[in-house]
Specification:
4-stranded antiparallel sheet, mainly beta
């Protein structure tokens, strides 16, 4: 029997469809482990994504590449015992930094399928812990966390390199972040003895590393800076690792573009080995390491436990609703809608 109210039914159905659509679109992004990502015995130290689909990570002897936002990964052999940091300037050209191999830097020009060693000029760092890429030509690296504090840089996409000794202002270097080809930060430690008198240090350059200004020196012994996260040019965070259980668990925060830094405490008593830190906005971020994973939604005033990942060492955000983290495996911060797979042929066509 034909309904006496066909128009009403159609309108109700349309309203329900609109409500369902709006509800799905309004879903907040959340973290989840990628089911097909590599899993480490201890942890994956780094992850790098060029865009929403194409990314890389690494384990001893292997580099893994995804072309579908982390849904699947392809493994390639790499002649390294450790992948401490990884970065790509284009879909083809990338680098690995190591702190356990006799060679600190390795390069690829075929998207990670093959790698060769880079003969860095003197002074040679004992290892590289962090890489920062500006555009397709400028690459910076720094290391190592345990000594020979050195900045390396290339202005021609890795064809040639320069090394800069920073031993006059630092004991070890862990991470670097450059906003432009000339301006950026490196972080690590300053001190003399092994660990016992290390303190946090944040250094800034505005001339490509030729001269440096110390922007922060910590007051806690047995402590050093680990990772950098700038959700905006104005607000930034640096994680602090400490070997002293009496040191309050804390990170460092700037609200003036890195000119001044202040402690942000997660706990007044005890300390966990904070390493990875990442903020998707000026207010919302996460901090992890070998201890508990924490998160804040108010710029660090209040921190709470977050249960989605372990041993987080690196965060990478591509936008307000998309990010990745490297820890026991690779974790993704995203909307519920999955990125559709795209063949590598399509990727090469896009980036050539």
């Amino acid at each position: 029997m034909r309904s006496r109210y066909p128009t009403t039914r159609l309108l109700l159905g349309a309203v329900l469809l609109v409500e369902i659509h709006v509800g799905q679109s309004a879903a907040e992004p959340a973290w989840h482990a990628l089911s097909r990502a590599p899993v480490a015995d201890y942890r994956l130290d780094d992850v790098w994504f060029l865009d929403e689909r194409m990314g890389w990570t690494g384990l001893p002897g292997h580099v893994y590449r995804t072309v579908d936002g982390g849904s699947t990964w392809q493994a390639f052999a790499a002649p390294v015992r450790g992948v401490r940091c990884i970065a790509f300037a284009t879909a083809a050209n990338g680098w690995i930094g190591s702190v356990v191999d006799s060679i600190a830097l390795w390069a690829t020009s075929d998207s990670g399928a093959t790698w060769w060693s880079v003969d860095l000029p003197a002074p040679k760092p004992r290892g590289l812990c962090g890489l920062s890429v500006v555009g397709t030509s400028v690459v910076y690296g720094c290391g190592a966390w345990y000594g020979t504090p050195t900045l390396v840089k290339s202005l021609d996409g890795g064809s040639s390199w320069k090394s800069i000794d920073l031993s006059s202002v630092a004991t070890g270097l862990v991470d670097c972040h450059f906003f432009s080809p000339d301006s950026g930060f490196v972080v690590g430690s300053v001190g003399t003895a092994w660990v016992t008198d290390w303190r946090e240090v944040i250094l800034f350059t505005a001339d490509g590393g030729e001269t440096w200004e110390t922007r922060y020196t910590g007051k806690h012994l047995e402590s050093w800076c680990w990772k950098i996260s700038f959700p905006s040019r104005r607000v930034g965070y640096v994680s602090v690792e400490s070997a002293n259980p009496q040191t309050p668990t804390h990170c460092l925060k700037t609200e003036d573009g890195g000119r001044t830094w202040n402690e942000v405490r997660l706990s007044e008593t005890g300390s966990f080995f904070m390493q990875g830190i990442g903020f998707v906005t000026e207010q919302q971020g996460w901090a992890g390491g070998t201890g508990a994973l924490q998160w804040t939604s108010d710029g660090g005033l209040i921190w709470e436990d977050a249960a989605w990942g372990t041993r987080i060492n690196r965060f990478r955000f591509l936008g307000p609703k998309l990010g990745y983290a490297a820890g026991r495996t690779i974790y993704k911060f995203s909307d519920p809608d999955a990125v559709q797979p795209l063949s590598f042929t399509g990727i090469k066509r896009k980036w050539r």
